[in-house]
């Protein structure tokens, strides 16, 4: 079992990784900003419902309780741009996430189509 202060420090790191203020994180979690602050300071531990809201925000809850911290994203081969996209996606509303996915899928289809046209031009 980890200490409340270690949990709080990890939660703070996750919030900052997502680019959120305490107020923004609290709003996304459906709790008061003061409560979020108490989690980060190790005064309180969140309930199961709050932990589920953390998951919905994109926080890896298991890493908050892990005996060892996982490696930072930069050591996992994630570029700065990929990390920025992930942060934006996690902060987006449901509609925003749909738009991001649609744009990514559309760009992928366009690239595939352009590749087919280019290949056809070379054979003609």
Automatic annotation (TrEMBL):
Residues 11-64 form the HTH cro/C1-type domain. It comes from the Bacteria. GO terms for molecular function: DNA binding. SMART domains: HTH_XRE (SM00530). This is Helix-turn-helix family protein.
């Amino acid at each position: 079992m980890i200490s409340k202060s270690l949990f709080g420090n990890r939660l703070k790191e996750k919030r900052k990784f997502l680019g959120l203020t305490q107020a923004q994180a609290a709003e996304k979690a459906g709790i008061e900003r003061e409560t979020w602050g108490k989690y980060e300071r190790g005064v309180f531990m969140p309930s199961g419902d709050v932990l589920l809201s953390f998951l919905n925000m994109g926080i890896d809850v298991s890493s908050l309780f892990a005996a060892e911290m996982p490696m930072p994203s930069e050591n996992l081969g994630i570029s700065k741009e990929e990390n920025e996209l992930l942060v934006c996606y996690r902060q987006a509303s449901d509609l925003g996430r749909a738009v991001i996915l649609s744009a990514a899928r559309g760009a992928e289809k366009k690239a595939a189509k352009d590749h087919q046209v280019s290949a056809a031009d070379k054979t003609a």
